[in-house]
Amino acid sequence: DVLYDVEIDVRYAFCSQRGYYPHQLNKPNQDAYLCHNVLGDEDALLLGVFDGHGAEGDKCAQFAKSHLVQNLEQELRSALRKTNTTTNTHGTERGNTVSSFTTMKSFSYTQQQALKVIQAYDPLKSEEGSEVEKIFKDSFLQTNEQMHASEIRTSLSGTTAICVLMVGSTL
Question: Which residue of 1, 103, 120, 160 pairs with 79 in a disulfide if CB–CB is 3.0 to 4.6 A?
Fold first, then answer.
């Protein structure tokens, strides 16, 4: 369960040191990190570390960092729109026909009216796992496909990634 009645003080830090390559003294640091409030939701914090490798590992790590956030937020917006779509049935009967229609709540993505990630978080939602787990997986796969389709030479370069989403007091 996601707990909101527990006060948590979240602190995080990042430290990275470029590897030593005697034959490439000016090789860029291939690490990237992110600390991001998802959809501007102060109760949803995405933390991640990306460790690039290969000739263009620095570009891979930066690409994954930025595109993962974009893809994750796009998938969450879509899931939250589905969650907030309601069907209203009106009692106007003509013969045996009851008219019904679907209404969509309109959303503003401003800081003051941010979508709440908690609305998509349900660890017991289905046998396939929670909606957030599916969104995470799809976002990583989409980011990987986008990186391979980009101008970055990924045949011998790439990145590893580890991310955690903290919603309320739940990881």
Answer: 120
